[in-house]
Amino acid sequence: MSQQMDWEGYGGSVAELHERYEVPVLFGPWAADLVALAAPQTSERVLDVACGTGVVARLAAPLVGPTGTVAGLDLNAEMLAVARTLPPPPGAQLTWHEGNASAMPLADATFDVGLCQQGVQFFPDRAAALREMHRVLAPGGRLVLSVWRAPQHNPHSVALAEVVARHVRSPETKARVLAPWAFGDLEALRTVITSGGFRAVRIRIAARLVRFPSVEAFIPRLLITIRVTGGEIATLDTAARATLLREMSEALRAYRDDEGYAVPMEAHVAVAQA
Question: How many domains does the chain have?
């Protein structure tokens, strides 16, 4: 494996890097599963909460067709800016809304389907966000959301967080790197959903192999994460970066096969009714 990498070649905003590197390999395949489970129907009204650059919303648009509607909501203006620049899919026209999931700038009972991929764990007030999702769904509407399971079910995340923590100064970095997996308890998730007013909550474990051809191809995803939470990786010198890359390769060694790296990941996927 080559230890050379053009770290400066990953320029662009966090949102641009997310769309370029994370969506095709990671969020896109999971989004397809989420939308398939929700099964939006012709003419339905769909809301994608914490939509990011809009991969879930774009997959839902052809299913509801031109007589349906699809809206994406996100707090991050940069993510929405990228979403607006992407080619529109066939089907429903997409609308994008900047706003807080805990206080959505949307009217009551205006959607039939609510979707949220890997957003709940980042909401400061999860209960308030679930109440808002319930408020904007019409009676009988359905919610489908996903969160990663706990770190012990995604062991690569722990290994990588430990590598990163050895190379940065902030004592909080390991916790920040593990933040996506910080809300991985099934019953805690069920409690938050039911506290929002939802019923008939069913949670399943979903698993996927996430493939990367090389550690060098994995680095951009980690670099994005660190940039979001402080930028420590970007400030490392050349020697430290080479060491980090080597240690990451060792941490992922158990997941290497003849095609690169096959990293197992697990999530909780919840379905509920308004």
Answer: 1
